Amino acid sequence: xxxxxxxxxxxxxxxxxxxxxxxxxxxxxxxxxxxxxxxxxxxxxxxxxxxxxxxxxxxxxxxxxxxxxxxxxxxxxxxxxxxxxxxxxxxxxxxxxxxxxxxxxxxxxxxxxxxxxxxxxxxxxxxxxxxxxxxxxxxxxxxxxxxxxxxxxxxxxxxxxxxxxxxxxxxxxxxxxxxxxxxxxxxxxxxxxxxxxxxxxxxxxxxxxxxxxxxxxxxxxxxxxxxxxxxxxxxxxxxxxxxxxxxxxxxxxxxxxxxxxxxxxxxxxxxxxxxxxxxxxxxxxxxxxxxxxxxxxxxxxxxxxxxxxxxxxxxxxxxxxxxxxxxxxxxxxxxxxxxxxxxxxxxxxxxxxxxxx
Amino acid sequence: xxxxxxxxxxxxxxxxxxxxxxxxxxxxxxxxxxxxxxxxxxxxxxxxxxxxxxxxxxxxxxxxxxxxxxxxxxxxxxxxxxxxxxxxxxxxxxxxxxxxxxxxxxxxxxxxxxxxxxxxxxxxxxxxxxxxxxxxxxxxxxxxxxxxxxxxxxxxxxxxxxxxxxxxxxxxxxxxxxxxxxxxxxxxxxxxxxxxxxxxxxxxxxxxxxxxxxxxxxxxxxxxxxxxxxxxxxxxxxxxxxxxxxxxxxxxxxxxxxxxxxxxxxxxxxxxxxxxxxxxxxxxxxxxxxxxxxxxxxxxxxxxxxxxxxxxxxxxxxxxxxxxxxxxxxxxxxxxxxxxxxxxxxxxxxxxxxxxx
Amino acid sequence: xxxxxxxxxxxxxxxxxxxxxxxxxxxxxxxxxxxxxxxxxxxxxxxxxxxxxxxxxxxxxxxxxxxxxxxxxxxxxxxxxxxxxxxxxxxxxxxxxxxxxxxxxxxxxxxxxxxxxxxxxxxxxxxxxxxxxxxxxxxxxxxxxxxxxxxxxxxxxxxxxxxxxxxxxxxxxxxxxxxxxxxxxxxxxxxxxxxxxxxxxxxxxxxxxxxxxxxxxxxxxxxxxxxxxxxxxxxxxxxxxxxxxxxxxxxxxxxxxxxxxxxxxxxxxxxxxxxxxxxxxxxxxxxxxxxxxxxxxxxxxxxxxxxxxxxxxxxxxxxxxxxxxxxxxxxxxxxxxxxxxxxxxxxxxxxxxxxxx
Amino acid sequence: xxxxxxxxxxxxxxxxxxxxxxxxxxxxxxxxxxxxxxxxxxxxxxxxxxxxxxxxxxxxxxxxxxxxxxxxxxxxxxxxxxxxxxxxxxxxxxxxxxxxxxxxxxxxxxxxxxxxxxxxxxxxxxxxxxxxxxxxxxxxxxxxxxxxxxxxxxxxxxxxxxxxxxxxxxxxxxxxxxxxxxxxxxxxxxxxxxxxxxxxxxxxxxxxxxxxxxxxxxxxxxxxxxxxxxxxxxxxxxxxxxxxxxxxxxxxxxxxxxxxxxxxxxxxxxxxxxxxxxxxxxxxxxxxxxxxxxxxxxxxxxxxxxxxxxxxxxxxxxxxxxxxxxxxxxxxxxxxxxxxxxxxxxxxxxxxxxxxx
Lengths: 357, 357, 357, 357
Description:
The structure is a homotetramer. Chain A is an alpha/beta fold. In chain A, β4 (80-83), α5 (89-99) and β5 (103-106) form a beta-alpha-beta unit. In chain A, α4 (71-77) crosses α5 (89-99), α7 (141-149) packs parallel to α12 (333-348) and α8 runs parallel beside α10 (220-232). Chain A has a seven-stranded parallel sheet with strand order 3-2-1-4-5-7-6, sandwiched between helices. Chain A has a seven-stranded mixed sheet with strand order 9-10-8-11-14-13-12. The longest helix of chain A has 19 residues, at 266-284. Chain A is globular. Chain A is 34% helix and 19% strand. In chain A, 60% of the residues are buried. The first copy, chain A, folds into two domains: 8-156 and 335-348, Rossmann fold (3-Layer(aba) Sandwich); 160-330, Dihydrodipicolinate Reductase, domain 2. Chain A has twelve helices and 14 strands.
C-alpha cells in the first residue's frame, strides 16, 4: 500500500518548541527518512546546530538551515510534512500542504476531533477547515494502524489522551469496564507547557511545586471522550484532572474504572484478573511500544522517558469494587513526536520501530 | 483547663529523622517551650548543632546533646514528650512515659486508631498497648480541639490523612457529599519516606521520576476511613492512591466526591456552590491554618511548604456531577511536626499559632 | 545614635520579584517594623495576599494593597524605603526619596561603587546620580556596621559579592593571603536571575543543566574588586566565574587563595592553620550570621537556605601551596533581602537578629 | 590489526550500578556487539528486563539473565569483558580473565595509574596486581587510539579526569599553557556517587543542595596528574575541587590556566586566541565526540547528557592573564560507559561511533 520510497523526504514546520526539537532529533537519525527542511520564523537562517547545540555532532545539523515556512515550497521538497504548531495555526498550513500533494502529520489538536462543534466548544474558535475533519485519521497506531496506512492527514494524539486511551480502550471494547464514571488523574512534566517565556513555567515557579490546572474541563477531554465513545458505542463523559510536577518529561496517569462484573471473593478477583490479563495480552502482546507490567511492578516515568513506550499496570480493589489502571509515558515521545514518527513508519511501510529504539 | 506553666518543658524521642529534625527546629524557636532533651541512639553524645548544622546559629543547639532514650529520665525532665519513632516502637515508649506522668504527643500511627483489630489488619502485628487506644485523642485540632485540651496521649495524624480529612470532614458532616465512592489521589514529596538509606529513595531514583505505590491498600487508609466514618455516622470505604514525586516536601491531594444533591443548571450549580462555600466558612473561617482559596486560585505546594497551612480549593463539575476538592500542605509541618506543635499549643493553652508563624 | 522609633515605618518599592517578595515576608513578620506600603506597577490595586498566596495567613496581607510607586507619598508614609528594582531604575527613585527625607536601603547595584567610571565600565551607562556615590554606605554589616548606623543611603551588597567578601576580607586585612591571583568560582540557584519571563530560565532549560555565564567579566566583579582593594590597600583584580545550577536558592563559592607565607611541613601547616582559625574567630566569633565550620564539615547550601547565615570552611593544601575557602549562603536572604533587613536593624538600633531568626 | 569478528561477544561484570546499567543499554543496542553475559551477585537469576524495566522492550532483555561472576566461564563466553566494579575488586577479576584470554575493559581506577606507589597513596591499599600496570592502556581514545588498538587491558578513565584532560592536554602539549598552577573546579551529578544506599545521596539530602567534597585531595587527582605529566614532560601538581549538584547526570568543569605568553593588547589577545583555536582544531576537528564551541556558546550539561560528547569552550581574560576553559560531559557516558564502548570500537576496528549515536 505504501507509495513512499526510502528514504522518505520529510519536513518539520515549527521546529523550535520541545516537540519540534524532538522531531528534529528523531528524523535526523531515522534510517528511512531524509530531513529536508525545518521551518521556524524566529530561527530562520540559522543552522540546526546553532539552535540545538546538542545535535551539533550530527553532520546534517551544520548544513540544514531553518527557513521561513512556505507551504508550496515544502510540498515540493518533502513527501511528508510534520506540523509542530499551535492549534488553529496548524490548520492554516495543513490546507495548502494537502492541496499541494504532501502528506501531513499534524501534532496539534486541529484535526483530532470529528466534530467541528466540539472543537468550537473546547477551543473557543471556529474550526478553520471543518471539511478536513472527516478525512483525518487519529494517529494512534495501536488502534488505527490500518487507517493510518492510507492516510493523507494524520492527527497525532495529545499527550494526556495517549496515556489515558491506551490503557482504557481495550477494556472498554471488551466490555470489562463500564463507560460511566471514569476518572483519569494525570501528572505531567513541565515540557508539556511548551517552550514559552511565561512566568508560570520558570524554574523557581515549578521546582518544589505541585499544582492542578485546567480543573474541571481541560481541552484534551474532547478527544479523549470522542475516542472512548467510539470504543464504547455510546457517549462517554469522564473526569480528568491534570497536574504539573517538577520533571522535564513524563506523564503518569492513574485511572479509576468500574468493572462491569462484581468481584469480592478471591475466586471472582482471580477470574476478573484473568480476563483483564487476557484482554491486554490480546491488545498489546505484539505491540512494540506498549508494556504491560507484571508482578509487583508499577509504572514509573523514569523507565519510559527517552523511549516511545507506554507502561501499564493494573490492580483490582475488592474493598471498593474498582479497577485501578496506571500508565506512564514520555509526553514528548509517545505523547507527541515519537508517536508521530511511529505513524510515519506505519504510513510509509517501514518497520514500526524504525528510528524509535 | 491547662495545667502547664510557660515555658513548658518538652523532649523529643527519635529526633534524627525529618519529622524529628523539624520538631527540633520548631521547639528551639517556640516562645513558650523549653526543649530539654532530644534522644537518638545513633546520635547520642553529639550536640544538636553537630547533627543539624542548619540550627547551629541557635545558642541552645550547641549546648543540647542527644541522649539515649530513657523513659524514666525523660518523664522527670519534661512535661510533654514528642515521639518521632516508627510505628510499633512508639508504643513501647509511650507506655512508661504515660505511667511516669508525662503527656505524650505521638507522631507515629500507633495510637491513631480506635480498633486494635484494624491496626493488626493494616500494620501486620498485634497492637502493643490496646488498652491505651480508648484514651488517645486524634490530634487534628480543627476537629478535636476540645478533646486535645485535656488529653494525656495525643496521636498526631498522618500526613496523607490530614490532607484528605480537612477538606472532606465538613462536607460529610453537613451532608453535602455522600460517604460512598470517595476517591483520594495524592502526591507526596520524598521526605515522606523518611531519612532511610534505601536505594528507592536515592536522588537518581526519585529525580525525573513519578510513580504510585501502596496500590490499592496503603496503611493510612485505616485512620482515614475511621475518621470519615465517625463524621458520616456510617462505615466508609474509600479509594486512596499515593504517588511519589520529586520534591523535598509537600503533599497535594485531589478528591473526587459525589454531592448528595443533583446539579446541572446554572442555578443548581450556584446554589450548591453557595452551600459548599458556607460549609467551609463555618468550619474554617476562624482557623489560622486552613486557607480556602477563592477565585481561580488552586492549591500549590510551594505556597504552603515551610508553613503549617493547608490550602483548599474546590470545583463543581456539572458534566460529571462530581465535586472536585484539592488540597496542599507541607507533609512535615501540617502533616506531622507542625500539627504536633499545634496540638501542644492547644493542650497547654498557648496561642494556637505560637511558634508556627 | 538611632533616631528611629519602634516600630519603624517601612516601604518596599518593586515588591514583585524574588527579593521584593522575601522583603515582604521578612518585614510582615519583623517585630520592630511596620510595613506601610508596597509598590509594583504590575500589581497595583491588588492585595499582598492575592499576589503572594503563601503570605495570606498573615492578617496584614489581606489589608495591604500594592500601589503605584510615588516617591513623595512614600517618603511621607515611611521612615525607611527599600528599593528592590533593577539597576539604573533604583537610582531614579533614590534621589527624590532622599530629598524628601527618607532613608533608603537599595538592593540594586546603583550605589555600591565609589567610582562612577567603574560603574559606566561595568553597567554600560552613565551613573544617574554620581554625587550620591560618596555618601552611600556599602551595607555589609560585618564590615561597615559603624557606618551603617548613621547612613541615609545604604547600598546592599550583591549576592555573589557577599559570598566572596565575607570569607576573604579578614584574611586580606590580616595579611594572611596575597591580594593577587584570587579566583572565585561560584554557583547560584535560579532565583538569582529574577522573576523574568525568559526562555533561558524556564524549568526545562535549567533543570538537569549546569552552565557558566558572564565569563570572564561579570558585573559583580566591580564591587568585589573595589571592596577587596579597600581591604588590601592596593588595587585588586580577581577571577570570578558564576555558574547556574538547578536549585531555587543558594550560592556556593569556592575560593582559591595564596597565603603569604610558605607551608609544606606539618608544623608550618599547623601554624598557618592556627593563624587562619584565629583570624576568622576574631572577625566572626561574635557575628550572629557568619558560621565558620569546624572538623570535617563543608558548607552546604541546604544548611543555610531559609536563613541569613553564611557558612565558611577552609582547607590548606600543602601539595599546591594554596588555601581553599568555601562558603554557602541563601542568595535571597544573606545575599539580598535578609542582609538589607540586617542593615535596617543596625541602622535603627534594633537587635541585629530581629526578624531574621 | 583487529582480531575480532563482528559481532564481538561481550560480557559485563557488575552490571547493577549506574555505569553497568548504561553499558547494558549501549551493548544491547550495539550493531557489532553481542551481549552474552551480565553478572551481579545480588541480581543473579533474574532477567535484565526484571532488573531494568526500561530495557524490557528489547527482546534480549527478557532472555538474558544475570549470573554469578565466574571468570573462567566469562572468558569462554566472551571476547571482551567489561568490569563495572569498585576499585580493588576489579583487579581481582581482571587477572584470571586476562589469563584465560579475554580482553578486559575496566571502568574502575585499578589500572589507570602506572605507579603502584601512587595507587597506594591515593587508594590506601596495596595494588592487587602491580605487574599489570605496565601493560594496561589508558582508555582515552582521543589520546591513546593507537595503543588501544592492540590492548588486552584497557583502563577506562574516570569521569572527572575525562572532563579535565581533554580540554587541557592539547594546550599543554603545544606549550600554550604552563604546567604549573592549574586549577580544575568541577560539578558532578549524583549518579557519580553510584547506586549505593547511603543517607548522603538520598533525594532530600541532595535536592536543593550544593556542596564540595574530597577537598583538597580527591582520588582522581592521581590519574589526572599522571596524564598531565606525560603530556607536559615534567611532573604536574594541580588543584582540583569536585562539587555535588542536584542533577542525575553531567559533569561541568571550569579550568583556570596560565598561558605561557603574555597578552594584554587586543592584538596579543587575537594572536593567542588564534593559537588556541588552531590547537583545538588540530586535536579535535576530526573527533566525533569532542565539540569545541564557537561564538558566545558555553558548555551546558543538558546539551551533552545522553550523548558521548564533551563540549569545550574557552575565554582569554586579559584582566587577569588567565585562560578559562570550560567543559561539559555526561559522567556516565563519555565519563564512563560510553567511553568504554568507544574503546571497544577502536579495539575491535568498528566505526568509532558505532552504538554511540
